[in-house]
Amino acid sequence: MQNSENCHENVWILSGTSDGPFLAKRLLDLNYSVFASVVTFRASKSYSNHPKLHIITGKLIKREEIVEFIRKNKIKLVIDATHPFALIISEKLKSVCNEINTPLLVFERESLNNKSSNFNYISNLKDIDKSDLKNKNILLAIGSRSLNDTASYYMNCGANVFARIFPIQESVSKAFGSCIKNSNIAILEPSKKKLCILEKQLCKFWHIDYVLCRESGSYSQKNWEEIIMGTQMKLFLVRRPESKNNKSNIFSEYQRLIDHIRRKY
């Protein structure tokens, strides 16, 4: 990896595929040198080639790794645009940046909080009323980390459990190693075209009653809301954790974040 000494400033973005590529492009257009961290090689393909863009693939687990990365690459600003439920890495970034006096800005998608008679906001993955689960078909769209534990819980409540997972090796491995029947697992990317939402056909094929997902503000959540609205199905959204970052450093609009960076850095 090569660090450019003649760039405007070195900015490190940690993000998924929704927000990171757009933020990176805007900063590159303004002559910043951008380091973008993604978890998988597949996610890196969402970024365009650019001489001042450096892609880092893989998880940063230890605080020491984060400190070393910032110092080695002369990072002047860190942007945390990770998933709202990625609490561990967000807390580590906050702690490290405070410790070594590196500015940290947070991009959080706005909480949609759309209201419908069949939208239900719950506090955790196991908050669906047990008394109404017997023989219900529930589709889990919660990722793979808590998939087995959550599936086991709802199976014990008498529900028939299905899952939608992303085509990532780790996710696929965890899903097929879980207690969910292989025939009840669908591997697909969230649809990005409103006129062709594959998840809608999946719900029809499996006769889904309930969908469980997280309140991420992503197009995946928007898809589920589009599918559920006006049907007999119910959507259960796990509320996102409350941010503990300084409110003045949190942005929910791309332009406001970019304008702030231009003024300050």
Number of strands: 12
CATH class of the largest domain, named Alpha Beta
CATH superfamily of the largest domain: NAD(P)-binding Rossmann-like Domain
Strand order of the largest sheet: 3-2-1-4-5-12
Low-confidence stretches: 1-7
Number of domains: 2
CATH topology term of the largest domain: Rossmann fold
Return the CATH architecture of the largest domain.
Answer: 3-Layer(aba) Sandwich
Oligomer: single chain
User: Mind describing the biggest β-sheet?
Assistant: 6 strands, parallel
Judged by helices, strands and strand pairing, the structural class is alpha/beta
Radius of gyration: 20 Å
Mean pLDDT: 89
Count of runs of 4 or more consecutive helical residues? 9
Instruction: Tell me roughly what share of residues is in helical segments.
Output: 25-40%
Report the β-strand fraction as a percent range: 15-25%
Reading the helices and strands in chain order gives EHEHEHEHEEEHEHEHEHEEH
**C-alpha end-to-end distance:** 23 Å
Shape: elongated
